[in-house]
Amino acid sequence: MDEDTPRTDGGTERVDGEPSEDVALDPWGSASVGDYADLFVEFGIEAFDDVADDVADPHYLMRRGVIFGHREYDAVAEAMANDEPFAALSGFMPTGDPHIGHKLVFDELIWHQEQGGDVFGLIADLEAHSARGMSWDEIDEHARSYLLSLLALGFDPEEGELYRQSDNRAVQDLGFELGSKANFSEFEAIYGFDGETNVSHMQSVVTQTADILYPQLVDEPKPTVIPVGPDQDPHVRLTRDLATRVRYFKVTEAFASFELDDAERTLVRAAYDALAGDGGDAGDGSDDRDDAETDVRCIDAAEWLEDYEVPAVDAEEVDLVDAKATALEKLRAGGKEPLRPRVRFFDRNATDEAFEALIEAVDGEKRVFEGHVDAFELTREAAESLAREVEIAHDGFGFRQPSSIYHRFMTGLTGGKMSSSIPASHISLLDDPEDGYDKVRSATTGGRDTAEEQRELGGEADECPVYELYAYLLAGDDDGLAAEVYSECVNGDRLCGGCKEQAAELMREFLEEHQEKRAEAEELLEDLDIDLDSDRRGTGGEH
Ligand code: TRP
Ligand code: SF4
């Protein structure tokens, strides 16, 4: 990544490994994160930097550290690089007017569409009704507005799909199916639901997991990225789990009839490689399936492993020490059974026909057991695709786990968090351009008390909501402008008055232009097959 591009990563610097304060990710709570680094430690979200280099021409939100985290985005980046199918999907709860925070997600969707992905945008109307108590009339009005902004910013509805949850029968059916693999205790643990939680709210969670997997249902299983704020990560984690739970087969690697966990497998593989290498001409033997004849028995491997010193190098070390004892036990119990690398397919949810078909489809030597089949001549990857193929041919989903990317929340213009209940703290995409101008002019800054001090010490761009506006929105693709504002600010060459004036003018221009484009998009929206006049009956809403 370009070292010159200033990044908005105040906070992620801390790497001491201990969360500083309690962090919770609550999809319906207040969206603020004290320290983004905590999300890596606590929830296993990965730093976006780790995959950034795999993206050929990253979006400016990626370049500037606004997109700070991900789950398995490598799969999407790889598909993108190899011109293979991939998808992106995100959803919007129509609870108010779209604002500049939503624009981040709109832009992320549009960018993935430009990169050749199948892109989906949805209106989470069921969620808005059940979790936020919005009436159907309010929902219709806001839904229209979200869609207009998404279209105005460049979403191509011919190439992608826009839908509302309540109108998508396939999503409902998928939700029903996925719901059969989730239970209330889990919702309690993930979302803090309790006996008071309304049942439709729970149904809206199931619907969201269906949204997330829907791109893989309409066409074929493929890498799919869900661009969202980190508050949505609980949904992503649950969906990644459910995607696995509905799979027909589970593929693992094994060496003998018994099961090994990952750490044990590492050790047994080491034993096998050492011994198979000794006994034949197979070199290190690790990738070489021709050495199947080598006569290594479990008991030999146990003997080897006993004297093996687990290298005290990496963090896995502790795992491996514990695993050594259990692996030894298993190998000894295996006695004279030959040790032979193989892939194992477990029947997890398959129909009998599908399991039969899988057995039939395995090429080369295989051994069939109750509930699983071992294949001796397949690589792990070949086995994974075979399992998916058979599953799909037999009415299964064959889902891949969805990926995600997470963006930072923008700081409110009045300091603190951006909140729809404090109009001065955020800018709506529907704000009168003059109001937008005024809000920026009156924003809090990272400036010093006096001009003199500012010249001497420089401003604190990393703490400044106005700098954020440049980085997240106003500078657009122009890294030069973002870099200039940043360096002039921190070097004391820029004073807040002028800086805000420039930002305010850019904001006014942006809003003027955006609103013109929204007007133009009206026609496009009319032509789409989206019902924005729902005649649903229901309750009026809670306010
Ligand atoms: N829960 C999301 C929100 O509060 C909206 C949403 C519904 C969504 N389905 C989704 C987001 C699927 C991403 C993917 O805004
Ligand atoms: Fe913020 Fe600009 Fe002032 Fe720097 S000069 S603190 S970026 S308003």
UniProtKB/TrEMBL annotation:
It catalyses: tRNA(Trp) + L-tryptophan + ATP = L-tryptophyl-tRNA(Trp) + AMP + diphosphate + H(+). A motif ('HIGH' region) lies at residues 94-102. It is an enzyme of class 6 (ligase). It comes from the Archaea. A motif ('KMSKS' region) lies at residues 417-421. Residues 1-28 are annotated as: Disordered. The keyword Ligase applies. It is found in: Cytoplasm. Keywords: Aminoacyl-tRNA synthetase, ATP-binding, Coiled coil, Cytoplasm, Ligase, Nucleotide-binding, Protein biosynthesis. The keyword DNA-binding does not apply. Residues 1-17 have a biased composition (Basic and acidic residues). Pfam families: tRNA-synt_1b. Catalyzes the attachment of tryptophan to tRNA(Trp). Belongs to the class-I aminoacyl-tRNA synthetase family. This is Tryptophan--tRNA ligase. The lineage of its organism: Archaea, Methanobacteriati, Methanobacteriota, Stenosarchaea group, Halobacteria. The gene is trpS.
